[in-house]
Amino acid sequence: MSAAGPPFGERARRRHERTARVARARHAGTRVDRSMTEQRADERSAPSERRRNRAGGRIASFVPHGHRLTLEDWSARHRLFKIVLALHLPAIVCYALLRDFSLTHGLAAASPSLLLFCAAALPGARRVRALAASLGLLTCSVVLVHLSDGLGPMYFHFFVVVALIALYEDWSVYALAIAFVFVANLALRFLVTAAALTDNERHSALVLAALHAGFIVALAGAQVLFWHYNQQERRRTERYRQQLYEGQQSLMSRLEETDRIRSDLVATVSHEFRTPLAGIRGNLLTVRRRRHRMTDAQLDDLLDSALNSSERLSRLLENMLTAATATGIEDNPVADLPEVVLNALGTLRNASLATAVSVDLPDHLPVRMSKEALHQVVANLVDNALVHSWPGAPVRLIAGRVGDEVVLRVRNPGPDLDKETIARLFEPFTQRDGSATRPTDGAGMGLYVVRRLVEVHGGRLRMTSDNGEINVEVDLWAAEISLPTADPTHLPQLPDLPALRAEGLVHDPQPVVPLPTPPMGDRRPPRQDRLDRRYLDADDGRLTPLGDHGATGPSGRRQASAWRTDDPWRADGSWPQADGSWPRADGPWRTEHASPADGSWSADDFPLDRSG
To answer: Where is the composition biased (Basic residues) (predicted)?
Structure first.
């Protein structure tokens, strides 16, 4: 025996739910189909709609809208309309009397124009008042033609009124006036000539009326063209005026900047010159008055202090002279970067700070820049890094060749700088701390001179500051390596250059093929290779710390230990601890680049960011 089924009410409820679900699904599908159909229809109609919008936009830009008139100009033109319309009112009454009409007839003929004159005189929207004044003058034309019984010369009144309405420079007002004149002209001709002329004469009169109306339309077209070219000239004048205003503002800002630089120059030069001169004078006076009571060591200290002050003056004058005269370069200048770097480090103003500089350079790295200019670039960059670095922290200088460029990078730990401060540091007479009581001396010309020299030689200069490290990168054109040509069959082997490793690609070190001489006056072309290249050691792919291999590294890299007595990474000559920190008297200074394993530097520690 089968089990009993659900009751009838339950079966009906379930059947109703199934029917409702099917209906909802069908309705949803219908809605989806309808929406897709509407979407496809919209897509098909979109091009025509865009074409209509473009056509409407061209027409709208061709005809005037009246909003370009200032309120003062529009008020003056509207005042002229009201005067002309007011003069027409008594003229209509007088003309009616001359045509043997009664005074009442003349007043009735002038009353519509009087009402429109009152509407034009009342305050309101500009377009409404313009329409009232225009219709008032056109009504005067119709009344005069009617009072003259269709006299031909009286139709010229329409031409004068239409030309006068064009002063509003509003297409809606003008279009209404043209339509009114066209219809009124035909209607008047028909009413005047309907009773007195035959069919042929009436036909000729209507043709003449249509001809007059056609001339009115032609006048309207000519007036629209005049409007269009007048607006173009007005827009051109406005653009020239805006350019002149912007040029004047730019000139004013440049004059203000020049005045600021002049004031800063006077204040800075007076301060920077007075301080070393006072030191020189004081030291020399002390030597002159007390030399018989001073030891040789004391005399040497005073003379060294005077010499340092004179070197400070010489450096300031040299930077100022370079900034003023750095406008051109020599023909085919070539300088060896490692040689210039060692010479610049040997002439630092504070020889004790030179031991805090580590150098990682190949044996030969020629660049297209004169030795004097390159010396100033390197000296100013290193001097700036030493002065503004944390006390006792190392300054690292690395360089190498990437394609047709030589990249010089100077890194030093220091306080983080924002983008505004970085951009301001490369302006003349600008320092991070501009107060008169700043702990460091200088006129703020070093980085500005670097920028000027690099730009003149077609290079690029970038500065970044992040995570307590300041990085300055200079890109210069690479130069050919001069080789003897006496015996072409026995050319000396090219020196090893640092190998270049790209992400995922390892290239064997090969001699660099000399490139054609680029135009130094132009900016360099955009780089074709934007891979993130890193300098690696030619032997094991690592950058070893300075002083680990003596005067030269395992790959022939020039080391700085040949001209210093201790290691730059620590004041006592030791290497970083296992956690990568240097313990100091005034607190620990930690670097993220120390390798705790063997104290070596990996290629990831000093990447060359080629992203620009």
So the answer is: 12-29
Residue 222 has which token pair?
A: 């000519």
Residue 162 phi, psi (nearest 5): -60, -40
Residue 591: pLDDT band with limits 50, 70, 90: very low
Q: Is 482 helix (H, G, I), strand (E, B) or coil?
A: coil
Please indicate, yes or no, if residue 19 is contained in any of the structural domains.
no
Which of 54, 39, 130, 20 has its CA nearest to residue 85?
130
Max CA pair span of the chain: 140
Residue 84, pLDDT > 90, answer yes
CA dist., res. 142 & res. 155, Å (int): 9
In a domain, 157, yes or no: yes
Task: Return phi, psi of residue 236, to 5°.
Answer: -65, -45
Query: What pLDDT sits at residue 12?
Result: 58
pLDDT of 80 higher than 60: yes
What pLDDT score does 193 carry? 53
Where does a domain end: 212, 246, 280?
A: 246
Q: Which residues contact 458 (CB under 8 A, 6 or more apart)?
A: 368, 477, 518, 519, 520, 521, 522, 523, 524
241 and 387 co-located in one domain: no
DSSP 485-540: -S-GGGPPPPPP--EEEETTEE----PPPPPPPPPTTSPPPPPS-----EEE-TTT
- pLDDT of 606 above 90: no
Number of Cβ within 10 Å of residue 171's Cβ equals 17
pLDDT score of 430: 66
Whether 330 and 222 share a structural domain:
no
- Report which secondary-structure segment, H or E, holds 227: helix 199-290
Residue 555 CB-density burial (10 A; 0-12 exposed, 13-18 middle, 19+ buried) = buried
Residue 559: its pLDDT value, please?
A: 39
Quote the pLDDT of residue 310. 85
Q: Give the residue among 65, 72, 82 at the shortest CA–CA distance from 169.
A: 65
- For 486-502, how does the pLDDT look when each residue is reduced to its tens digit (9 = 90+)? 443 443 333 333 333 33
Mean pLDDT of 387-416: 85
Q: What is the CATH number of the domain that holds 567?
A: 3.30.565.10
- From 196, 221, 246, the end of a domain falls on 246
Report the C-alpha gap between 397 and 24 in whole angstroms.
75
Look at residues 476, 301, 330 and name the one whose alpha carbon lies nearest to residue 400. 476
The whole domain housing 160 covers: 71-246
Instruction: Give yes or no: residues 212 and 359 share one domain.
Output: no
Domain annotation covers residue 257: no
Note the pLDDT of residue 246: 92
Residue 408 zone, left/alpha/beta (φ > 0; ψ -120 to 50; rest): beta
| Mean pLDDT on 302-319 | 82
Indicate whether 123 and 213 sit together in one domain.
Answer: yes
| Structural domains of the chain, count | 2
State the Cα torsion 79-81-82-87 to the nearest 10°. Answer: 130
Residues 6+ apart with CB under 8 A from 61: none
